[in-house]
């Protein structure tokens, strides 16, 4: 079993174990994002925010242009260091401070994994209904979710190499499938679906596009690029990582917005996220549902791989394999509970909105730190040992933690998650606070980035690029 299951956690990848090309990152991220989840995000812009199709199309382009450079910048640090994104953030927050980001990132990925598993269940349940004419319920429903959860563990357990191969071929297959889907859907779309939404709704919708894509993927960027040779072109690494997510997100979210204009009405059941593509021709419905299930299982493989690494950075001293199993159990429990609830899109929107409160300040600190160090890191300092270059005070670098916490506070004050409206956001529309825009991303990034840029000047150790073999172990806890 040890020969099949990847044993590496957040250890630095030795130069002798590096492989692949920068272009491979395009297939990794394209395979991860080319699925019905991405289509659903586009539909949410019309269903939940009330955007017209053309408003949604503009928001999709702008939101992704703003978001995917963030994944690009975190990806370029992988070949330089050979370790994961959250581990690299020890240079900003210290080994103990980075634990917070590790836990938050793990919780975020658990949420996305559970959401993916829920959609897989809906797809397989619909598939069974189409073929056998029955709908799983009760014990059968629970057994089906458990079985699907077990299947999704395969890719992350085997590890990075199998993920890269699966994503490459999945990208090709799913791209062809969604082209066919577009030909079936677009002739039915209503491109003049109403007057559209307010400027406040457009701002909030743009935030959802950002956090559903490039912003939420940013903490995972180096997790996969770390396997590339250390001399890989940084512009190429950043470009292909960003394009692998940007292209599918723009195309599929736009398709989702168009699909929502076909199905919005009294007949749409928001408790079933696959109600949007219910307008498909019967001959395409079954193969489409199969592709939905397979695509989401592959995406969840990427999430599960990263979440295990993040939890190790948070200090959990257990093998990555055990974390993958534990995460899967958590996803199964959440999926069983959630499938008994209604309004999937409302739950998904609230979850995504909450993520921006910590993601925006975190990524701002990471990028400012990267810029100040000119992309170079002290690899020995990333090991997390007491007294090392990034140790700080009791394992916490105060500039980073102060910037992160302050940014999170201001992000929360300016947030509108769909169930919580911050007091500063509410000032926009005191008569109807829920109609206020969600400003958590721009405010959180600005506050955290400025504070870190000012407080970290002169306090950071000189950047050191360590040549040769960098296969040292990175500690999950201080020694």
Automatic annotation (TrEMBL):
Locate the transmembrane regions by residue number.
Answer: 26-54, 66-88, 100-124, 139-158, 170-191, 197-218, 239-262, 274-298, 318-338, 344-368, 398-419, 439-455
Topology relative to the lipid bilayer, per the entry, is: Multi-pass membrane protein
The subcellular localization recorded is:
Membrane
Quick one: where is this thing mainly located? membrane
- GO CC terms: plasma membrane
Q: What InterPro entries does the record point to? A: Pur-cyt_permease, Pur-cyt_permease_Fcy2/21/22
Does the record bear Transport in its keywords? Answer: yes
The UniProt record lists the keyword rRNA-binding: no
| Entry similarity comment | Belongs to the purine-cytosine permease (2.A.39) family.
Name the UniProt record assigns to this protein: NCS1 nucleoside transporter
A GO molecular function assigned to this protein is: transmembrane transporter activity
Pfam families assigned to the protein according to its UniProt record, in alphabetical order: Transp_cyt_pur
Write out the entry's keywords from A to Z. Membrane, Transmembrane, Transmembrane helix, Transport
């Amino acid at each position: 079993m040890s020969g099949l299951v990847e044993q590496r956690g957040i250890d630095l990848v030795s130069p002798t174990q590096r492989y692949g090309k920068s272009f491979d990152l395009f297939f990794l991220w394209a395979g991860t994002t080319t699925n019905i989840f991405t289509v659903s995000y586009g539909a949410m812009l019309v269903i939940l925010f009330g955007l017209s199709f053309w408003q949604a199309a503009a928001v999709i382009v702008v939101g992704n242009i703003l978001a995917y450079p963030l994944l690009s910048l975190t990806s370029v640090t992988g070949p330089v260091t050979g370790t994961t994104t959250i581990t690299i953030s020890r240079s900003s927050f210290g080994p103990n401070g980075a634990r917070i980001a590790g836990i938050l990132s793990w919780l975020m990925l658990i949420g996305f994994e559970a959401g993916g598993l829920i959609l897989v269940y809906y797809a397989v349940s619909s598939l069974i209904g189409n073929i056998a004419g029955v709908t799983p319920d009760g014990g059968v429903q629970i057994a089906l979710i458990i079985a699907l959860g077990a299947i999704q563990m395969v890719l992350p357990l085997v590890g990075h190499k199998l993920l890269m191969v699966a994503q490459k071929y999945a990208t090709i297959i799913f791209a062809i499938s969604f082209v066919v889907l577009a030909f079936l859907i677009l002739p039915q779309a209503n491109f003049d679906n109403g007057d559209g939404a307010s400027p406040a709704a457009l701002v909030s919708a743009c935030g959802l596009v950002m956090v559903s894509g490039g912003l939420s993927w940013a903490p995972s960027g180096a997790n996969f690029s770390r396997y590339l040779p250390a001399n890989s072109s940084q512009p190429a690494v950043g470009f292909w990582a960003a394009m692998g997510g940007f292209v599918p997100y723009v195309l599929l979210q736009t398709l989702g917005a168009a699909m929502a204009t076909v199905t919005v009405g009294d007949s749409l059941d928001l408790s079933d996220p696959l109600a949007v593509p219910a307008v498909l021709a019967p001959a395409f419905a079954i193969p489409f549902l199969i592709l939905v299930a397979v695509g989401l299982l592959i995406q969840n493989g990427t999430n599960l791989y990263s979440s295990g690494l993040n939890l190790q950075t948070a200090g959990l001293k257990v093998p990555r394999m055990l974390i993958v199993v534990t995460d899967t159990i958590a996803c199964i429990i959440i999926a069983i509970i959630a499938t008994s609830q209604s309004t999937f899109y409302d739950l998904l929107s609230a979850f995504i909105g909450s993520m921006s409160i910590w993601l925006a300040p975190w990524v701002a600190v990471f990028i400012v730190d990267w810029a100040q160090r000119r992309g170079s890191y002290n690899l020995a300092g990333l090991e997390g040992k007491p007294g090392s270059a990034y140790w700080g005070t009791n394992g916490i670098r105060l500039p980073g933690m102060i910037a992160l916490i302050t940014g999170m506070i201001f992000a929360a004050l300016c947030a509108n998650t769909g169930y919580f409206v911050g007091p500063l956001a509410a000032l926009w529309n005191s008569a109807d606070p829920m109609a206020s825009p969600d400003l958590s991303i721009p405010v959180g990034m600005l506050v955290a980035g400025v504070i870190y840029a000012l407080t970290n000047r002169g306090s950071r150790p000189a950047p050191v690029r360590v040549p040769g073999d960098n296969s040292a172990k990175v500690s999950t806890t201080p020694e």
